[in-house]
Write a structure and sequence with these properties.
Elements lengths: L4 H10 L33 H9 L10 E3 H8 L6 H15 L5 H5 L3 H6 L6 H13 L6 H13 L7 E4 H4 L2 E4 L4 E4 L8 E4 H8 L10 E4 L2 E2 H9 L7 H6 L5 H5 L24 E6 L4 E5 L1 E4 L9 H8 L5 E2 H13 L17 E3 L4 E5 L8 E6 L6 H20 L4 E5 L8 H11 L8 E4 L3 H14 L10 H7 L8 E3 L8 H5 L2 E3 L2 E3 L3 E3 L6 H5 L23 E5 L6 H12 L3 E5 L18 E4 H14 L2 H8 L9 E2 H4 L1 E13 L18 E3 L9 H13 L37 H14 L17
Parallel strand pairs: 14-15, 15-21, 21-22, 22-26
Antiparallel strand pairs: 1-10, 2-25, 3-10, 4-5, 6-7, 6-8, 8-9, 11-24, 12-13, 13-14, 16-25, 17-20, 18-19, 23-25
Length: about 775
Amino acid sequence: MKVPALLALTRLATLVSATPVAPALPRPLPQIHPLRARQDNGTNSTAPCAQVSQAIYSHEWPPYQTHIPAKIAYDCITSVPLNVSSAKTLLSEIPELLEWQSTLKALADPPAEYVEKVQPAVDLLGGLQTIAAQIDDGKIATEYDFGWTLYTLLQSAHDGHLYFVPDSVGNIFTWGRTVPLVSVSDDGSQLPAVFAFADVLGMQFKNISYTPSPVVEIDGVGATEFLEGTSQYGSLQDRDALYNNMFYGLAQIALGGEGSVTGAFTGGGRGRYVYPGPTTTLKFANGTTHVMENYANVLTSFRNIENGEQLAAKNFYYGSVDATSAMTEAEAAAAAPAAATTPATPGYPSPVDSGAAGAIKGYYIQGSGYEDVAVLQLLDFVSVDQYEEDFQATSKRFFAKAAADGKTKLILDVQANGGGTILQGYDLFKQLFPSIDPYGANRFRYSEAVDLIGQSISSFASSAPRGSTSNTTILSAQATWFDYHNDMTVDGKPFTSWNEKVGPVEVNGDKYTTLARWNLSDVLIERSAGINITGYGPLANVTGPPKFKPENIVLLSDGYCASTCTIFSEFLTKQAGVKTIALGGRSNRNQIQAIGGVKGVNNYGWSYLTSQAALAIRVAPPALQAKLNATKLATTYRTSSLFSRTATPPGVNVRDGLALNDTSGVALQFKYEEADCRLYYTPEMTIDASATWKAAADAQWGSSGKCVGKSGYGGDGKGESEVAVATAKLNTGRVKVSHAVALQKYEEFERSFSLETISKKQRTGYMLP
């Protein structure tokens, strides 16, 4: 039961000094009601799944418990025996999905710098064979063991567009802890240390009588070592970005349930799929400890469930699902509009402008020395049709107002930005730099499926003038990548045929399609973007100088920037010369990347791929149709366990991004690029976004910036090998506010503790959390 806020504030001063974690813990385990469940007929079973049922329905009336002790949930899910034939079928069908993964072969043999600084190589197809062998050897005997092994294999690609969550991992339970953490430097120069966020809150609002002590061990392992290791289960590729994502962050909270909420450590984002054990023990530098009972979030009904077999019968479908029905369900979920109300955003001032359900907001920084600085916060690039025009209009309004108000400097805050509509990234760049033509070269991985679908759809799309037919099927075909008229060569010329576009071209040991670029003047561009692009087509007359000089713009990132966000950042940094600032990172003085998410430039869901295969078969001329019907496009693509055995429809990254003037052929996904400046988080920055923006402005344009190590413009010059002082404590009494304001602020943060990442969320063009 949640402790009331006023009582929590009182206890911060009285109880926490013994164990430096505030008792007003987020998402506490509900008390189990002593009344027996109506379904148990007077007896309580000791079988794990029966215990789950009893824990959920221990009340005689709703609301029932949705958070239960993690241990009984884990014992339940691991009691479901493996259906070997279904598992083997799934393993045999996954390669059909993976052949669309643009980096499939490169992942098995990535560049040496990527292996050294980012992630190790992974052979996904070989890994599937290993899992099959483990099943044959009896080493994998339960559905959960199978699902978890498969999930971690595909997750090890560290590609946020490659999304595959087996049913046993994401359909029954997700997991969580009750104490969010932060990693902060006391003064912005000392090495950061890990603290309980409740301690930081208490310290900031002067409600504690002790000096907060850092967490030094988690479950007997050094805190930073534990968190670095656990962070590897995340979707990002960069290790410093993964580390940041373990912690409470204001931008993730601002996303509501569509973000990593209170951090992967507490079960936010991909952390919700990682079983944390029955309990977690935090040991503090002052010698005190805190033991929390971990919990499971129940995602399905357990009515009349007594054992693993019954759970499987009700929740696991071992057959195949028709692609048409699965596609319809997935598309309906993806098309559902996001909530019109913006989630509560503790730690942020009132915006000057806001749009697209809070995805984009404009701010001014209050305080002496920041009068000429504007901030554009980009939580994502939307991916919902009803917000596309609003997103574009909001940035236009804000830039005009900022200019009128004398703002000459701009911070582009992309913390927590997982992407969105591809061409929104193009448009925003063109608004800022009207005279620069964004490059954006891209390619697919070549396969027979790509070629055959493109042959059919390109032929069909050519049956009517582009964009001037009332036939919606033809229009839809003309707006897909599989119509060669849809884009252009890297030289800005139209492709003359499908064969010219598809190639294949052999690069670094794999085959790809010919490099292409978006034709931003295409008459059907609105069908891809939901908007016309600034500077092209109907908006071709939008010209002029940059909205801000490149040296007066800085891109501010916590490393989460992914998908469309990386496209936008590539244009800014490579073509316009904009500088970057990276926040946080592991506890060292190394330079780090600002962009740590997937740098692939397009993801397709399996439902979309199967729909394109079905369309290709339906509209193909007779000879080609016969050829298509002789392939897996007419079998595996039509009925597949890829739908029935996953918690959320899976997807892959289909397009690589390639850098301007780069002849190596190496996708941007494998490029390591350090930020121009690195800043540590301070305690103030965890509760006040303005503190972060001021630190960024100081680093970019001031004389008091605290860029770490060799990075930045005002760096202290200390090399990464030099021993630095670590944060050993946090100084108290930092913020001067009244008791009433302290209570209000604390309650705002307390409400955010109940946020959880939405399961089974569908969003196109977006790295799902």
